[in-house]
Design brief:
Blueprint: H1 3-27, H2 38-61, E1 68-70, E2 78-81, E3 102-106, E4 135-137, E5 142-148, H3 160-177, H4 179-183, E6 186-192, E7 195-200, E8 214-215, E9 220-223, E10 235-240, E11 250-251, E12 253-255, E13 266-267
Parallel strand pairs: 1-12
Antiparallel strand pairs: 2-3, 2-13, 3-10, 4-9, 5-6, 5-8, 6-7, 7-10, 10-11
Helix pairs in contact: 1-2, 1-3
Length: 280
Amino acid sequence: MSIRKLAAILARCCLLLVIVLVLGMIFAGWAPPLWLLFPPAVFAGAVLLVQGRRTARAMKGATAPTPVETGAPVSGRWLALNSPATKVPSHGLHTYGQTYAIDILAAPDPDPRPPFAKLWPLVRGNSHYPAFGAPVLAVADATVVHVLNGRRDHLTRTSLPALIWLMVIEAPLRETAGPSWIVGNHIVLDLGDGTYAMYAHLKQGSVTVAAGDRVRAGQRIADCGNTGNSTEPHVHFQLMDGPDLDTARGVPFTWRGIGVPANGESFTPQDEASPAPSLD
């Protein structure tokens, strides 16, 4: 086990200890010395800070990596959010190989997505969002490395109270459980030459491939869902230099015929009309 992997596991254990102590103090009337909270909290924060700074330092001192060209992971008209074309790291952190990750939302014209609500409704069903159930495609001929398919699709977090709940309660708890709880149902593909593609937040039960399968570019491998740390149905896509989210570093991508769409930019893959059929 690498030092990076061990540090990530120990940091999650420390964060879990802090949460247990705080909940015990609030709900069970425990009265442990407050100083007990500081060592695990400081260690967990230090691991996150050090790993992020090491990655940032390595990026700053090195020549910008050449983006890996792939096909798009979807067909139809989509909208980009949290794009590396707008800022790097795109999601604010280098952890979990997400330096150059992108989120995309289905955006047919006209777009039927409900607007963000300040207070009400607190949550909505996923069927209100056109991305839910949309096909997710292999971006290249590849080998399936890892699959997770059993996490449930939760309701949206598209109101201010629900978003606060996600950030303050859900996200820290998922952080303690590990990256698989953060990304939800997901697939990792080995594209060759040390490059791996990861698709996150997939619909429960929709994955059509298994570890060890070979897939073709354009093949439908899953459906878009709303699992893990997700506010609404969308596809999270990233390239990495390894299959383990705890130790992988992000790799920049460019989609053939599209490039990298910036935040708020819509795009339509050129080959959307004829995605390759499933090999099932």
